[in-house]
Structures are given as C-alpha cells and as structure tokens.
Amino acid sequence: xxxxxxxxxxxxxxxxxxxxxxxxxxxxxxxxxxxxxxxxxxxxxxxxxxxxxxxxxxxxxxxxxxxxxxxxxxxxxxxxxxxxxxxxxxxxxxxxxxxxxxxxxxxxxxxxxxxxxxxxxxxxxxxxxxxxxxxxxxxxxxxxxxxxxxxxxxxxxxxxxxxxxxxxxxxxxxxxxxxxxxxxxxxxxxxxxxxxxxxxxxxxxxxxxxxxxxxxxxxxxxxxxxxxxxxxxxxxxxxxxxxxxxxxxxxxxxxxxxxxxxxxxxxxxxxxxxxxxxxxxxxxxxxxxxxxxxxxxxxxxxxxxxxxxxxxxxxxxxxxxxxxxx
Length: 326
Hints:
By secondary structure, this protein is mostly helical. The protein has one domain. The protein has helices at 2-12, 18-33, 42-65, 90-103, 109-115, 123-149, 163-197, 208-231, 235-251, 253-263, 273-309. The model has no long low-confidence stretch (mean pLDDT 88).
C-alpha cells in the first residue's frame, strides 16, 4: 500500500495528499483480495509480474546509461561510491539483514498455493523454480543498480533514475504493486476465514454468513495494513521492521519447529547423519530467526526514529510527498 502511494505520487506529481493515496491503495487491495479463489486472480498476478519485471529492467538500463542517479549531487563530476565491503554499525547491519528477510517473507503463502493447486505433486518443482528465479533476479538487478548508484540508491529503488524514468518505472510497476497488495491481503484473510468457519456449512455456501465473514476478513486485514502503512510511511524502515518483527516469526522459527515436530521422534535406528544435520539446521534457523527478530527490530526502530527526527522527515498520516529519490 505504501508502494502504491509512492507510485501514485510519482505519476501525478503529488496530485493529492499522500494519506489519500494510501487510502486508495487500501480500497484497491481489499477489493481485489475479496475475490475468493486464487484461480480467479491468476491473471492479475501475471499482469503484475510482467509489470514488475518490465519496470526493474527499465530501471537497470536507465541507471546504466544516465549520467548519475536522481539523488546524486547535480553539479561537478560524479562517480559511484559503491563498496564491496562496508562498515555499518550493528543497528544498520541488522536493519539491512531484515530487509533481506522481508524479500523472502512470502514463504507462508506457499501453504495457500499448494492447497489450491490442481496437482499438489507439482508443488516442490514449482517452489524450486520460483525461488531460484527470484534469487537470480534479486542478485543480478541489485548488483547492477548498486554498482551504478552506490549510496544514492533510492528507496524504493524504482526512484533511482531521473524524473522521466521514475514515471516510466512506477507506471510499469503499478499493476505489480496492486497484485502484491491483493495477494498479501488475500492469503492471511483466507487463513482466518477457514479457521473461523471450519466445520460449518457456511465455509463453502453462498450464504450471507459466508460473505459477511469473508468480507470482514479481507477488509479487516486490509485495514490493519492501511494503519501500519500510514503510521510508518518510511519505506525502507517499514520494510526492515516488517521483515524483522513479522518476517522472522513466519519464515524462521515456525519452519525450524515444524521440521523438529515431524522428525524428532523418529526411531533411533534412523537417526543417522542426515537426521543430525536436519536437527542442527532447524536449531540454527530458530536461533538465527530469534536473533534477527530482536536485533532487526531494534535497528529498524532506530532508523524510523531518525527519519521522523530529520528535517522534512516523514510523519504518520502525512500529506507530504513520499515520492523522493533519497
């Protein structure tokens, strides 16, 4: 939702209050997320995927051919100040790691996806292909953009190029931002909905109880998202905070605990070296997730506080243009 507000601000030259754009994103996300089955929203996801891919490829080309990134000094010679090895503080390092956690925080969505697949046996293959492609794109695009922009990479990165290319990139990315909002509202809403109506005939009927419950779940989840996006309108800080505080709780500790739950009570005869590696990996995932949850949240809160204290910094429910290039 925050990304959509930045996109709309960029495309309209801050044509309305930022709080209004976040509210529009809330309505769009809740509306599309209320479509009940993933099969009926697949086309939106495909449109969003191609939009996002086109936007980041255009961005990558633009930063490579332009003289300097949008946030860099306008006068005098300029050279990218990228570093292979940086010197961050503990809080900055924890915040950066939390952003990486956020990038992979869609893992819990796999459960919803496999439950609606025509052939669940294809799940592992699909997951491996998806994760491999996403990781390759993250690395390739991230390295190229950082090489040309250095410390002047914008957040979101789509704002790193010049004004015209920012509009092009955000225009292409807008369907993808809408699709992402839709999916991230739809998945948790469906979790709550199925848990609430499990064992009831209203789970699959078209009764008013069914629709009232379903819309309450989608709009309720969207409302929570809207409040968070409006209260913490600092994109990089919000990404790190969600990654540290919530991403770890969904992608680290539960996954390690699930493996231990499934395999801990195996017969001693099958507790071979592979089993020991699995135990060690699961314990490591749980401990590292807990560490990142505490350290990353600390670093993210400090980062958000600095943004609030800065001159012209962000504020909750603000009308200030958030489509900056810094």
